[in-house]
Structure formats: C-alpha cells, structure tokens
Amino acid sequence: MAVITEEHVIDSFADALQYISYYHPPDFIAAMTDAYGREKSPGAKQAMAQILVNSKMCALGHRPICQDTGTVNVFVDVGVEAKLKWRRPLQKIIDDGARRAYLLEENPLRASVVADPLGARKNTGDNTPAMVQVSMVAGDKVDITVSAKGGGSENKSKFVMLNPSDSIVDWVVETVEGLGAGWCPPGILGIGVGGSVDKCMAMAKSVLNEPIDITSLRERGPQNCVEEMRLEILDRVNALGIGAQGLGGVTTVLDVKIAHFPTHAASLPVALIPNCAATRHLHFTLDGSGPAVLDPPDLSLWPSDIELKTPDALKLDLNSLNAETLAELKPGQTVLLHGTLYTGRDAAHKRMVEMLNRGEPLPVDLKDRAIYYVGPVDPVRGEVIGPAGPTTSTRMDKFTDQILSQTGLKLMVGKAERGAQAIDAIRAHGAVYLIAVGGAAYLVSKAIKASKPVAFHDLGMEAIYELQVEDMPVTVAVDTEGRSIHEIGPARWRRG
Q: Which pLDDT score is estimated for 429?
C-alpha cells in the first residue's frame, strides 16, 4: 500500500493555503453572482459588485482576496488503515505547511496570529500555529479540509445553551440581527446543534465548508426538519434587511448550513459561526501517490458584466477637510477619496492614547486629517501596497472620543457600524465616518498610489502609514449629525 509522507502533507497544505488566498470557491461565486442579479438596494448592489470584481482580480493576479488572510483552520480525517510515514506530531507538520504558504515571496500572506494572548500578544510572524481538528475514520486515505477564517467574522461567533423546548430559529435570527455588519455580509451561517460545548462549536465551524446548495434545496423542497430550518432561517434573516456590508438590502446570507449531534436530554447547545464575503476553503485527499493536485477554477465562472461606475460620486479632497465640506456628506452617499490618508488600527490607537495620556506629542499630526483602519498585506512585484481592505471599526470605538477631541482628527474610514459611544463622539466633534467594502481588499489597494511607514514601525502591519490615494471608493456611514446608514439602510429594506 502507498505511504502518505510528511512531505505530501506539507506540500499539499502550503499549496492549498496559497490557492484559497486568491480563489473563491466556485459555488460561492455562483451564489454571489445570483444575489447581485437579484439585489434591489443600490448601495448593497455596488458593494457586491466590488466583491465580485475584486474576486476576479485576485484570481488573475494571484493576490489575497482580503488583507485579513485569516487564521488557518484545518479538519483532518485520518483513515485508520492509512499507511503514514510521519515522525512528528501532525500539528508540527501542518504548521510547516502554513509557514511555507504565509512566507512565500511571490504572494506573502498577512501574519495575524499572536502568541501569549493574555500577555505581550506578540505576532508569531508566520501565522502559526494552525487550528487543527483531527478525527479517525474508516479507510486508508487522509482527507484534509483547510480554510482561512478572518477575524471580523470569527469575532461574531456565538454560543448558547438553550432549553430543549426553545426555538433555535428565533435565537439565530435574533442573534444575527444583533451581530452588526462586522462579519462582512453577504456570507454563510454555520450552525452546530447538540453534542457538547466543544463539539457544537466544531460542528458549526466545519459545516461552513460544505457546498452552497440552498437554491437546489428550495427547488426540490425540504425533506426533513433540518432542511426546513435552513430555509426558514435564510428567509427570516434576509427579511431583516441588513444587506451587503450592512447597507440595507434583500440578501444578507447566501446559505445556512446546519450540523447536529446527539446531546444530553436536559441540553440544547447551539453554536453560530458566520463566514464572510471572503469565504475561503478547500478539500483534498492524500492517498500516498504524492501531493494533492489543485486545478485552478475556470475564469468563465466570474461574471463579465459587473458595473463599478459611480457617476454621482462626490470627490473629496483629504488635504483640505473643513467643517463645511464634512457637513454636506450624508449617510449612504458614495465618495471618492483623494489625498493623504493615514493608517492606524487597534495597536496604533492604544499607543496613541497612551502617549496622549502622558502628555507626549504624537508622531503624526492628525488635525483635520483622515485615518484608515487597515492592516495591509506586504507588497510584491512593484506594488505600492498589498491588498488593503478595512478592518472592523467598532474595536476603535473606545478610543474615538479622545482621539477626536485631542488630535483634531475629522474623518475615519473602516468597515461595519459604529457603536453608540463612537457615534456620540462623531456628532460632538463634527467628524464623519466612512466605510470601504470588506472583501474587496485588492481592488481598494489599486486606489493607493503611494505608501510609506511614518510611525510605530515595530507594530508591523499595525504601524502607521502615510498613504496617497486617488478615487478610493467609500460610502458615508455616519455623518456629522450622527445619522448612521447601518440604521437607516436596514430599516428601509426590512420586510415583515
């Protein structure tokens, strides 16, 4: 019998991680294209257009779909009769593959994993360790499913212990309504029901990797209670009107996947894990004949008639922001940014606030300036910057009032909604919050014409950069009066 070696695993795993960094699964492209065709909300339709155009650009350019190239999630099914030539723990073997993929010079992927989460939180530099789940199954092969899960959607994971008589559907719908847009809809909901706490969460994560089939399910009709539940959740969540990027629209989820397992008679554990518009996963099988062969998808899968034109967009000069100009911006308005844009996210904000508290001057003057919540991928092949999509803005909410009041910052760019604390600060200081499309990182990066680090160089991708942008597409999310498109849009498109 053929032997499956460590090299087979490492080579296949590294290739798979590179593959999913720039290729969406074909079923996801088909579902997103269908949703784009049915979308009635102009803002949501334009967001979907950017996601689809970005996806094709990444497939052609072999660059990451999203700047958050995710933590590595791996499900390994080892056949009990498989002949293995492994001398080390599977965790170390898989980490070797992840390390090779994330440090590949031709397409480096962003390292986001930090060690010592309770202390220094220092970046491991190569995105290891991977999150590995192993099962022993019948057969003589090794099946591996790999996914890259971004922090925005991962952070929206939920778990609850319901009573056996409670409604799972009601809990899911109410929970999704409260998630906001930080998980970058439209995407997929993974739901685990039963088992134990750990089993339930693992099922919710694993089921996200199953093929999108909700349309065919609806056409043939549900044949059991699980399929009925999938359709009910899909319809009720989409009726919430959240829409793409939370802008309001008819499609919030593309599919709902449910896995279940026997559980204690007194328990009903339920886990919910959303997958974002940068859904990335792949399955391959090792049989001892060598590394897996990964064929690229047919480029004809991507639609060719997507419109990105925004003729009514306002051009905003970031080098001459003033109260009058900002007061004219309204929620939902499309804006094209020109000029100087600084970057800064969690670590940079924390450090800036610490400096302000000590009475120290900041290394950059933010008065009447704009800041972009982003941690880009490293550039290659003459790029100014790598894929540079927005990160979830709510993590900066606790810093917002102090930053606005003590620096004179006037404009922020990120993704998803802001909380009440941040909106109050935006209103009080006459600032504005804009959003870029999460899941369109490579497309956004093409609007950045120059980039240089200017502060906090030791923070790596979280350092402060000075960017020069031209025609960077964004949407007004919160205006100077505190009105939010993430409240206005869903309310407009809510059904029932």
A: 98
354 with 296, same domain: the answer is no
Banded pLDDT at 335 (limits 50, 70, 90): very high
**Same structural domain for residues 270 and 290?**
no
The residue to which tokens 């999150």 are assigned: 131
- Are 137 and 232 found together in one domain? no
Q: Is there a single domain that holds both residue 287 and residue 248?
A: no
- Provide the domain limits for residue 294: 1-150+283-308
With a CB cutoff of 8 Å and minimum separation 6, the contacts of 305 are none
Q: Do 5 and 101 belong to one domain? A: yes
Upper half-sphere CA count for residue 410 (Cβ side, 13 Å): 20
Which residue, among 97, 33, 108, has the nearest Cα to 67 in the 3D structure? 108
Instruction: Name the nearest CA neighbour of 435 among 190, 152, 55.
Output: 152
CA dihedral (280, 298, 238, 372) positive or negative: positive
Residue that is written with structure tokens 């620096």 in the block: 407
242-264: pLDDT as tens digits: 999 999 999 999 999 999 999 99
pTM: 0.95
Three-class secondary structure of residue 434 per DSSP? strand
Give the side-chain half-sphere CA count within 13 A for 97: 28
